[in-house]
């Protein structure tokens, strides 16, 4: 592990102006505290409160990105940091933008043989009956470029589809209708070239939506996952491939659902996942013997240089 003073003055980017601002503030505070405990000269920086160029004026040498969603996880902040010549954690501009766009993620995954649920771009003038004929019921309707399952609806009746589209469209002009896969939800955390132990997620409703993530007290997490070692290794290998196909690097998290035959269907890659003490990547790291403080420093060691 690098000597912590070698990092110089580190900006922890947090908050921002996405729909995930409140979650980002919690992640950022946790990252900031961990870096400071490890002796890193770290300071909070909220891009919604001051311009990005202030990073240079204030003498920062690199950025630890704890932003989630748009204007933080979608390549925009990454591009600004590259223009300023500041190294930053996580994936680069193109891979961040691709991973944020679930539709384009799926196109790349399908082209490279990575299994993902079938989907259709949904527009106001779409033939809804044809969409249901193609994907079946139930199905998932969600914004293509939003995080934390914001704007997501599971529908079981064709009459629910217009309202689900309107909700998703209120968050993004691109709306995805996606085949619903019934099964076990898992997530694979990635740190450099290493995959961490799987986390298996069990929800009361069977859907890991915003309510299950941030509100419900009934959501349960299992790490170790309970899968056999060969099953887990196979899913980890496929998740790492899915991550790399998008050009992602540094660290991240790949989400999947295992159907009744344990076949994985990959849903999305998160290039700046949650980093509170209760988030999934720290949970997987803990199972691998990596403390939260060690994890935060390792992520910083992997900082991207444009």
Automatic annotation (TrEMBL):
Keywords: ATP-binding, Cell shape, Cell wall biogenesis/degradation, Cytoplasm, Ligase, Magnesium, Manganese, Metal-binding, Nucleotide-binding, Peptidoglycan synthesis. GO terms for molecular function: ATP binding; D-alanine-D-alanine ligase activity; metal ion binding. The keyword Ligase applies. Residues 106-301 form the ATP-grasp domain. Its EC number is 6.3.2.4. Pfam families: Dala_Dala_lig_C, Dala_Dala_lig_N. The keyword Transmembrane helix does not apply. GO terms for cellular component: cytosol. The active site is at 20, 148, 279. It catalyses: 2 D-alanine + ATP = D-alanyl-D-alanine + ADP + phosphate + H(+). Signal peptide: none annotated. Gene3D superfamilies: 3.40.50.20, ATP-grasp fold, A domain, ATP-grasp fold, B domain. Binds 2 magnesium or manganese ions per subunit. Pathway: Cell wall biogenesis; peptidoglycan biosynthesis. It is an enzyme of class 6 (ligase). Belongs to the D-alanine--D-alanine ligase family. PANTHER family: D-ALANINE--D-ALANINE LIGASE, D-ALANINE--D-ALANINE LIGASE B. Cell wall formation. This is D-alanine--D-alanine ligase. It comes from Nitrosospira briensis.
């Amino acid at each position: 592990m690098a000597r912590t003073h070698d990092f110089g003055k580190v900006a922890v980017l947090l908050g921002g102006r996405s729909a995930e601002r409140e979650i980002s503030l919690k992640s950022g505070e946790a990252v900031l505290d961990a870096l400071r405990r490890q002796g890193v000269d770290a300071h909070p920086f909220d891009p919604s409160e001051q311009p990005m160029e202030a990073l240079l004026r204030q003498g920062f040498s690199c950025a630890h990105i704890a932003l989630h969603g748009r204007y933080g996880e979608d390549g925009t902040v990454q591009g600004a940091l590259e223009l300023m010549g500041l190294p930053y954690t996580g994936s680069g501009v193109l891979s961040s933008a691709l991973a944020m766009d679930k539709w384009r993620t799926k196109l790349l995954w399908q082209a490279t043989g990575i299994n993902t649920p079938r989907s259709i771009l949904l527009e106001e003038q779409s033939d809804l009956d044809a969409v249901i004929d193609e994907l079946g019921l139930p199905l998932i309707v969600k914004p293509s470029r939003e995080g934390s399952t914001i704007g997501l609806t599971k529908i079981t009746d064709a009459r629910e589809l217009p309202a689900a589209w309107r909700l998703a469209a209120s968050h993004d002009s691109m709306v995805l209708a996606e085949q619903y896969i019934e099964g076990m939800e898992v997530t694979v955390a990635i740190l450099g070239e290493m995959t961490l132990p799987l986390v298996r997620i069990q929800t009361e409703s069977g859907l890991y939506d915003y309510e299950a993530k941030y509100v419900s007290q009934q959501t349960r997490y299992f790490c170790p996952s309970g899968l056999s070692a060969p099953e887990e290794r196979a899913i980890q290998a496929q998740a790492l491939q899915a991550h790399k196909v998008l050009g992602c690097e540094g660290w991240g998290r790949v989400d999947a659902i295992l159907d009744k035959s344990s076949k994985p269907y990959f849903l999305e890659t998160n290039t700046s996942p949650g980093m509170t003490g209760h988030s999934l990547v720290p949970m997987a790291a803990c199972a691998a013997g990596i403390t939260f403080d060690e994890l935060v420093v390792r992520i910083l060691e992997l900082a991207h240089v444009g």
